[in-house]
Amino acid sequence: MVLIPTLGPLDELNFWQPSGSVDFKALLPGEPFLFKLHSPNDFIVGGGFFSHHSILPFSLAWSAFETKNGVKTPEEMRLRIERYRRAAPSPKEDYLIGCILLESPFFFDRSDWIPLPNWQKQIVRGKGFEADAEPGKSLWERVESVLHAKHLISEEEAALLSGKPKFGAPQMILPRLGQGSFRVLITDVYKRRCAMSGSHVLHVLDAAHIKPYSNSGAHVVNNGLLLRQDIHTLFDRGYLTVTPEYKVEVSQRIKEEFNNGQEYYAMHGTKLGVHALNAFLPDPSLLEWHNEHIFVD
Q: Using an 8 Å Cβ cutoff, are 12 and 65 in contact?
C-alpha cells in the first residue's frame, strides 16, 4: 500500500494500491484505517475512516481526487505506479489501481506517534486488529485519546465512534463523504452504467447531485445519480428530471428551444435504472425537490 503524505487540510483521500487485482475486504464502512510508517519505523502516525474500495482506471482516480492521491501531478502519480509495479513506462496505458477511499483523515504530530511493538517485517499489506481484545484494544484506546485531545475529529464523528466496536462490526452508516468519494461510490452503486441511457462508457459518466451541493445538497448516495455527461447537463438545467416513483420525465423545452431531442424523448416515461438495495435508492423527497425547483416542463 502507498502511504499518502499530507498536502494540507483534507476531507478525504485515496489510499491507492499500484495493483488493481485484489479487492479490499478487511473493513466495513465507517471503520478506522490506520497509517503505519515503513519498518523499521513501526509507528501509527494517523488514519481515516473507510468508506469504499474500488478498482479504478488511473485517469478516473486522478480526476476524482487529484492531489488527494498524495501526489502533486498526474505525471508523478503515473511514475509512482510504474515504479511500484516495476514496469516499463507505458504512456498510453490507463493502469487499473486499487483505491481505498478514506474520509476525515487525520495525521499525528511526531510527539503523538504510537509505537507498534513486535511488528513482523514480512507484513506488507496491512494487519487487522479486534477492538475488544489485545493488542487492538489498547491500540485503539491510544488512538482515540490523541483524536480527542488534539480535536482531530468532529464532535459528530466522535459520537459515531463512542461506545461502538471499532473493528469488524457490521454497519451501514457511511462516514461523511468528500466529493471524490461521492463520485466513485455513485459510479459503483450504479454498476458503472448511466441510470437513464444505460451507457457503460465509464469516461463519459458523471456522478450528478439531485439537489446541488451549492444548494445544501449533501455528498450522499441517496442524493446522487450516475448520468452520461450530456444527460447530466440537461438534468442540472431542468430539461430532464426523475419523479419520486423513479420515472424519467423530459421537458418539451428541448424541442421548443433546439428543434430536436428525439434521443431524449425516447427516455420519457422509462423506469430509472436504480440499485437493488433500498439503502442506496435516490431519496424521493430530493427527487420531488428537483421536480419543483429545477425542472421546467
A: yes
**Alpha carbon distance 287, 246 (integer Å):** 8
pTM of the model: 0.87
| Radius of gyration of the chain from its Cα atoms, rounded to whole angstroms | 22
Closest CA to 273 of 239, 228, 233, 234: 228
Q: Which fold has domain 12-161?
A: 2.30.130
> How many Å apart are CA 226 and CA 242, to the nearest integer?
13
Q: Is the pLDDT of residue 254 over 80?
A: yes
pLDDT digits 0-9 by tens, 158-192: 655 554 444 444 444 567 899 999 999 999 999 99
3-class DSSP state of 9: coil
The grid coordinates of residue 283 equal 431519496
User: Which three-class secondary structure state does DSSP give residue 207?
Assistant: strand
C-alpha cell at 260: 430536436
Q: Domain ranges in the chain?
A: 12-161, 190-293
Tell me the C-alpha distance between 33 and 125, whole Å: 13
